[in-house]
Amino acid sequence: MSSEPISEPDPTGLVIYVGQDRAGHWLVQDSRRNLEGRFISYGAAMRYAQAERDIYHASVEIANVPLTPLVSFAPVGRDERALPRAA
Questions:
Q1: Of 18, 22, 60, the residue nearest 41 (C-alpha)
Q2: pTM of the model as a whole
Q3: How far apart are CA 80 and CA 56, in angstroms?
Q4: Residue 51 lies in a domain
Q5: C-alpha–C-alpha distance, residues 46 and 68, integer Å
Q6: Segments forming the whole domain that contains residue 34
Q7: What superkingdom heads the lineage (predicted)?
Q8: Taking the mean position of all CA atoms in its chain, how far away is CA 44?
Q9: Sheet holding 59-62: strands in order across?
Q10: In a domain, 85, yes or no
Q11: What is the structure's pLDDT at 74?
C-alpha cells in the first residue's frame, strides 16, 4: 500500500483513512473516530471513502499502519441477546 495522499487536505482537518486491519479486512475510518466501514476489497473501500469525502469535504489518505477496528468483528456471544425485531 502507498502512503501518498489521494486528495488535498481539508482546512478543517477531517481525514478519511482507507487501510487494512491486522486481519486483512479493508476499513474506512475518519480522523474523528465517528465513521467506520468494513469492505471486501480496496476498490469498494475507496469508492465509499471518496463518496464520504465529497459529503464531509474531507481528504482521503491511505493508512500507512494497520487500522484498529472501532466495532468488533467477533461473533455475537451466546450470552448476548439479539435485539427484538420491529413488527
A1: 18
A2: 0.72
A3: 35
A4: yes
A5: 17
A6: 15-62
A7: Bacteria
A8: 11
A9: 36-39, 26-30, 15-20, 59-62
A10: no
A11: 82
What does the pLDDT look like over 17-66, one tens digit per residue? 999 999 999 999 999 999 999 999 999 999 999 999 999 999 999 999 99
Return the C-alpha cell found at 51: 463518496
Residue at 57 is within a domain: yes
Q: How many domains does the chain have?
A: 1
The CA distance from 20 to 39, in Å, is 10
Question: Residue 48 and residue 55: Cα distance in Å, rounded?
Answer: 11
Residue 39 lies in a domain: yes
| Distance, first Cα to last Cα, the chain | 46
Task: Give 84's contacts (C-beta < 8 A, 6+ positions apart).
Answer: none
